[in-house]
Design goal:
about 60 residues; alpha+beta; Rubredoxin-like; 3-stranded antiparallel beta sheet; 1 helix; 3 strands
């Protein structure tokens, strides 16, 4: 069964992922502010994560 609510999370290297809203993000990750269906979160990430390189490599 697929969960229906996810949060967009980001780490210190400005890498993005989705995480189940009912779970605490793993160490080193924080919520970015966007919450929605999994596909909506992935679409949001596509819009905001324009440079895939980690921050330390930019």
């Amino acid at each position: 069964m697929e969960r229906d609510r996810y949060a967009v999370v980001v780490n210190d290297e400005e890498q993005y992922s989705v995480w189940p809203i009912e779970e605490e993000p793993p160490a080193g990750w924080r919520t970015e502010g966007f919450v929605g269906a999994r596909q909506d979160c992935l679409d949001h990430i596509d819009q905001v994560w324009t440079d895939m390189r980690p921050l330390s490599a930019r």
